[in-house]
Design a protein that fits this description.
Keywords: Activator, DNA-binding, Transcription, Transcription regulation. This is Transcriptional regulator. GO terms for molecular function: DNA binding; DNA-binding transcription factor activity. The protein is α+β, with helices and mostly antiparallel strands. It folds into 3 domains: 82 residues, Arc Repressor Mutant, subunit A (Orthogonal Bundle), CATH 1.10.10.10; 99 residues, Periplasmic binding protein-like II (D-Maltodextrin-Binding Protein, domain 2); 107 residues, Periplasmic binding protein-like II (D-Maltodextrin-Binding Protein, domain 2). 42% of the residues lie in helices and 18% in strands. Strands 3, 4, 5, 6, 7, 8 and 9 form a 7-stranded mixed sheet that branches. A two-stranded antiparallel sheet has the order 1-2. Helix 1 crosses helix 2 and helix 1 crosses helix 4. 29% of the residues are buried.
């Protein structure tokens, strides 16, 4: 078997479509199909069940694919070792970042990172945590910026900082009259939430009550993936939500007046870089970590 054949079966597993996999591998579909067939003949087993659409691995094929990904990661690590020995940082760095971090954290460091590492092509995708973990496993991204702990097998976490949470309440909401807020104060109507799939939604529900119904004092039911949308709804409607600290730094005076801190101990979220356990591009990822930490606002706890 060859590394190219392993590349081809991993691509088919990733995209679950032979034509798309061939395009990603920069070969024709007949070439890819022929090489996969040749590999299956050599092994004496079927890697994929072609009777199903989309194509899926067989039970034995799943085990082969897991090992193939490990082999390919190890092979790709060899030229990286040579590059690192020359202190030659170049290539692609594919970053996944969750939506509740992207607009508030990226502007602090990404500009200087691309200037300081001009030989690196940076690709950024805004994804929810589940998508980031899946793409790390499939080798579609190199590193993720998420809230941890994840406790995912095969995923390495590199903590960066701890970000406190605050309450944002409409002028007419009872929480607006508080100097500081306790978790018990959150047992009130008017909670606005991010849509399901966002880890920050889960953290808010952990504090406010997992069985809470959003906006129970109004006939309007609206969930979004944008914190900025929640803020604007509260500005114009009523209610409250929780915000991570970085999302509050660019607020004007009117909005800052609607923020309320939590009483000690303040709830926080841990933000980390996450990688596959046998992660590639190590020097680039550690350079990214250093750049992020160097540009964080002073108020953020490292």
């Amino acid at each position: 078997m060859t590394l190219s054949q392993l590349d081809y079966i991993v691509a088919v597993d990733t995209y679950r479509h032979f034509a798309t996999a061939a395009e990603a591998c920069h070969v024709t579909q007949p070439t890819l199909s022929m090489q996969i067939q040749k590999l299956e003949d050599e092994l004496g087993v079927l890697v994929f069940d072609r009777s199903k659409q989309p194509v899926v691995p067989t039970e034995t094929g799943q085990a082969i694919l897991t090992q193939a990904r490990e082999v390919l990661r190890s092979a790709r690590r060899i030229p990286e070792i040579v590059s690192e020995s020359k202190n030659d940082l170049q290539g692609d760095l594919r970053i996944g970042i969750i939506p509740t971090l992207a607009p508030y954290l990226l502007p602090y460091f990404i500009g200087d990172f691309v200037v300081n590492y001009s030989a690196v092509s940076v690709q950024i995708q805004e994804l929810v945590t589940e998508q980031i973990v899946e793409r790390l496993r499939n080798g579609l991204i190199d590193v993720g910026l998420v809230v941890t702990p994840l406790s995912e097998n095969g995923i390495t976490e590199l903590p960066l900082f701890r970000e406190k949470l605050v309450v944002y309440a409409a002028d007419s909401h009872p929480l607006f009259g508080k100097t500081v807020v306790t978790p018990a104060d959150l047992q009130t109507d008017g909670l606005w939430l991010l849509t399901e799939g966002h880890c920050f939604r889960n953290q808010v529900l952990d504090l406010c009550g997992a069985d809470r119904q959003p906006n129970s004092n109004t006939p309007l039911r609206y969930e979004t993936g944008s914190l900025e949308t929640l803020i604007k709804l509260i500005d114009r409607q009523n209610g409250f939500t929780l915000l991570p600290f970085l999302a509050t730094l660019d607020m004007d005076k009117t909005r800052r007046a609607r923020l309320r801190p939590f009483a000690t101990p303040q709830p926080v979220r841990e933000v980390s870089l996450v990688m596959h356990r046998s992660f590639l591009k190590r020097q680039l990822i550690y350079a990214l970590k250093s750049e992020i930490l160097a540009h964080l606002p002073n108020e953020v706890e490292r």
